[in-house]
Amino acid sequence: MLFFDRGLLSMGNILFLSGVTTTIGPRRTYKFFKRNGKGTAAFMSGVALVFVGWPFFGMLVEGYGFLVLFSSFFPTVLLFLKRLPVVGTFLSLPGVKNVVTSLVGKTQTLPV
């Protein structure tokens, strides 16, 4: 019932954007969103759709924008997940391992 509540989604969008700004700073946030215009346009359009009152379509557009914006970070997340006990075992299964390897690429170390 509250999954697509307009007010809660709007507050979540505001908190997400303010959290990113607080974490990496205003200048880097601006650079991050400026470097990928397609993802930024989709994400901000989704935020606007949620504010206007179309939360379902807004979430769809936001999800696409999120995937485009953070697609370069997904290999790092997969490498981290491969090191977790239960999740790493699942990601090492024969069928799943081929997909994970194709997503991660040749990089096998975390950037930190």
Walkthrough of the structure:
- This protein is an all-alpha fold.
- The protein has two domains: 6-69, no CATH class; 74-104, no CATH class.
- The chain has helices spanning 6-24, 26-35, 37-52, 55-69, 74-82, 85-91, 94-104.
- The longest helix is centred in the first third of the chain and has 19 residues, at 6-24.
- It is globular, with a radius of gyration of 17 Å.
What order do the helices and strands come in, and which of them pair?
Layout (H helix, E strand, L loop, with lengths): L5 H19 L1 H10 L1 H16 L2 H15 L4 H9 L2 H7 L2 H11 L8
Features:
112 residues, mainly alpha, 2 domains, 78% helix
> Radius of gyration, rounded?
17 Å
The topology string of helices and strands comes to HHHHHHH
Number of helices: 7
List unreliable stretches of 5+ residues.
none
Brief summary of the model shown:
The protein has 112 residues and is mainly α. 78% of the residues lie in helices and 0% in strands. It has 2 domains: 6-69, no CATH class; 74-104, no CATH class.
